[in-house]
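Revision sheet: structure tokens.
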Amino acid sequence: MSQNNPFAWMSDLPEAFQVYRNGRKLDEVECIVPDMNGMSRGKAMPLSKFSPDKPIFLPVSIFYQTITGEDVDMDIENQWEESDMILRADMSTAMAVPWAKEPTLQIIHDLYNADGTLVACAPRNVLKRVVAMYEARGWKPVVAPELEFYLTKPNVDPNEPIEPPVGRTGRSGTALQSYSMSAVDEYGPVIDTIYDYAEDAGLHIDSVIQEDGAGQIEINLSHGDPVRLADQVFYFKRIIKEAALNNGMFATFMAKPMRDQPGSAMHIHQSVVDINSGKNIFSGDDDEATDLFHWFIGGSQKYLPQVMPFLAPNVNSYRRFESDTNSSAPTNMAWGRDNRATGLRVPNAGAQDRRLENRVVGVDTNPYLALAASLICGYLGMVNQVDPAPAVTGEPDDEFRIPTTFDEALYIFQQADDIYQALGEGFCQLYAEVKKEELRQFHREISPWEREHLLLNV
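Predicted:
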């Protein structure tokens, strides 16, 4: 960087940002990282204080917090020394903050220890570690996430149930309007704002769909590199929330925000290509499915139940799997061809597009950890040559059931030696302790149901 022009880096910013900026003075730079729950943390500073070459510091204790912001005491040597992590800007992630009043730039940063090594418990680094394991074998994973979320009336009292939003007709949304274009148009201003913000940020939306729930929308993203797609999900969640707020609504990524409405998923389509040839390793020269594809499915069946705390990371996540509500969420790890009753679906596709869709993941997950967990299961299947069970036609039985409570999921996760070794034992132990504390906090609460039915009846 030229010492005569400390802002020379700005000329290399993406075209979308230059169009958004439109010659205006850049006001602020947000230096951000995803925390354990996928929330944005970091520092904002005026342009004069930012340089891509200048390290920024945050305490490692941002990873010791629950979703409520409470600290968790763990068996970590000198835990509350709160040593600093070094943040280094990944300038390829630089994009606009479209809802800001003045031109603002946001940049995801990578996290390093003082000795230059990557911070092992940082979610983005966990995903990078998994991708590197693929690359070491000459493979490149490719993913495409689908994000479901709800638009709701603003809910300012947590004791009150969440309600569907009021659309342009003045009426509250109704359920079971899958793929209805009228239902999408009902919330047109919010959708338009999401498109506008995405364009300013240089992000691309593949499609927008009305889902089953009242005010439930699905946005599909184009396939690509797992780290880049996780970055996009991380950005899109913030974009969608801000777009809703600017139109008098809330957007929520809770897995199950309303009792009698379907839950929200983040289905993940996964394939793997050979780095040198670019060919999909799931298809052979005869265009038939390869052993690697079947082993990827086998690994997913065997290991995904062990990583459920990454795929369904909150107490509310498991409401989505309740069978007595209007829900299409699979509660199994069976696999089938074009079968949405199975947790693992093989969509209709040509040989180069052969892929496996993981339908169990909730949208409330941290995208970096969900992708890392899903991909490591397929990887272990391929490396260990894990054969899958036969494909299922129709609705599967209970043979392939998944944990349907957070307590059970955490117990199984803590016995998952292969997963701990692959993702890092220290990281997995830390994650488990944080989630166990969140579960303890939940169990201490007295719910409205208890007050209504037990206060005077027992």
